Amino acid sequence: MGEHSIAIIGGDGIGPEVTREAFKIADAASEVFGFKLRKNEYPFGSQHFIDTGEIFPDAAFEEVKGLDAIYLGAIGDPRLEVGKIEFGIIAKMRFELDLYANLRPIKLYDERLCPLKGKEPKDIDMVIVRENTEGAYAGMHGFAHKGQALEVATQTMVYTRAGVERAVRYAFELAVERDKNRTVTLIDKANAVRAHDLWTRVFGEVAAEYPTINTEHAYIDAACMWMVKNPEWFDVAVTPNLMGDIITDLGAMVQGGMGIAASANVHPGRVSLFEPIHGSAPKHAGKDVASPVAAILAVSMMLGFLGEKEAEAAIEKSIIELLQAGRIRGVGTGVHPTSEVGDMVATEIRKVGASV
Ligand code: IPM
Ligand code: MG
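# magnesium ion complex -> structure
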């Protein structure tokens, strides 16, 4: 029987409540599929910082590095300086654990969730591979003559050949594994950001090693248009960090909203980080109205990465069935209390257990 050690950071706003539901499901799956979860909970987030001055202390960071996976609910708090806690927690993990591929599946589970006319689940099923350690997020920025009329602000987008290549390669491997349309689309802005020529060239070189995988290319602006007009064209797409950040919020809406979209920040063979894409939504915090579906899907991705493929599939299937049967209605609109959705999914998982 497998045992997995997990770091759990509920974080800010709705983070702790959706995390609680996600682990309700993880616990049900562990009973049904016979694995053990060793859960280490950490209090980090904005409130903890305000109370103690501590963001993510080194000792805890070292401890987390030695675990099997990290789960993060959400962070961000309007009381703090912009970016402080985001960089101290999320970006710290992405960079210092070298989690170079941010996988963001965009999958429509039920037609009624899609804001686009006439699109069905068969039309929307893709994974965006967002390069996760470089680009505009590398932290190379500065100001000169701060506050003066001639103030200068710069931020350098950083791309390394090795960094681009591993993200692109991940996307090709994923297209092989998914075996869907066997297509990888490169999304960039090489016509304006000339540094993206490195992406163009590396993509071409890696593609040559995968003769059975088709390739496509779209500039980010056009890709946003295609995502709305013809989402069925996408299978796997790979894109620089900032473009990936932007297009995956669009993708989240196409699949039914931030209450559904989940993500994995991975470095194969190392401890990886799983999180819903949504933020901390402070105005909904503590009201039991947030959708835990995204958080639950993030837990299912985590279990899949830990090798619990049956649990991953059962959780996703339960959610699809509940959505398609109309039992979970209006994801993220507060129709169902947060905990009720968790209970429904946990019941479905336990039924799987009772039937085997
Ligand atoms: C995301 C978020 C983060 C990002 C923020 C919170 C720094 O928007 O995970 O998509 O920009 O990467
Ligand atoms: Mg984002």
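# post-check
The chain has a mean pLDDT of 96.
The longest helix spans residues 15-33.
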